[in-house]
Amino acid sequence: MANYMDLFSQLEAQAGQTNALSPEALNEGPCNLANIAASSVGDDQRLGKPQCSVKIVGDPEIVDRYGNYFHYLGPALVVCFDNRGVVRTLEFVGVEGGKKNSNYIKEVWQYHVEAGAWKYRVLEGMQGVPAHRIQCADSQVYYGREWISQGNLEEFHPGREWPSEKGPDETPPPSFLAAFNPNSETLLVNLRLALLPAVPSTAF
Which residues contact 39 (CB under 8 A, 6 or more apart)? Predict the structure, then answer.
């Protein structure tokens, strides 16, 4: 079993089967999960840890390695995973300003899954200007290609390692997490591919 997608395909193929479960089948699932985890560790040893080139800039937009971008509004949960489908980090990107206080990236709380630890970083200095040259309306979502850097001094790349600006035992306050609701964006980032799809989506 190479990755989680193979596992999901196997489960889908078995859906609706009425065969009685066997001890062998019950043991196979944890073994597959262990193999995927071991393969993920092996990838890091061979290739190094993923250094994702996807960036989130301050309008806010998420931009891939080829300049494809997706414009969104409000706070966003960024789920970062590797080629095996193993989730590495969960990044809660907060926003501020504009209509409904939702137009510019402000801060991020990153949860590192393997370490079980939180980190915090201020993103206000990375706000800059929109990545695309169109007049935005808060009620619309924009996406496209040919992102042009506006000369920001810093860039935020989800999934990367960086020093926390708060203590090692600090966690997100409830008031920060309360801003994330069913209407918030969930952005899925493959750390090794760092690509956006050709059509609007929340999977990157």
Answer: 2, 3, 84
CA atoms of 41 and 172, how far apart (whole Å)? 28
Q: Is residue 204 part of a domain?
A: no
203 assigned to some structural domain: no
**What is the DSSP code (8-state) at residue 156?**
B
Residues 38 and 78 both lie in one domain: no
Give the pLDDT confidence of 146-197 residue by residue, as tens digits: 444 454 446 788 998 899 999 999 999 999 999 999 889 888 888 888 765 5
Residues 36 and 89 in one domain: no
Domain range for 142 is 55-190
Q: What is the DSSP letter of 98?
A: T
**The two three-digit tokens of residue 12, written as one number:** 């889908």
Is position 171 within any domain?
Answer: yes
pLDDT tens digits for 60-119?
888 888 777 788 888 999 999 988 888 999 999 998 877 777 778 889 999 999 899 999
Which ranges of 15-163 does DSSP label H, i.e. alpha helix? 23-47
The answer to the question of residue 199 being in a domain is: no
pLDDT for position 37 = 87
Q: What is the DSSP letter of 44?
A: H
Q: How far is 65 from 155, CA to CA, in rounded Å?
A: 13
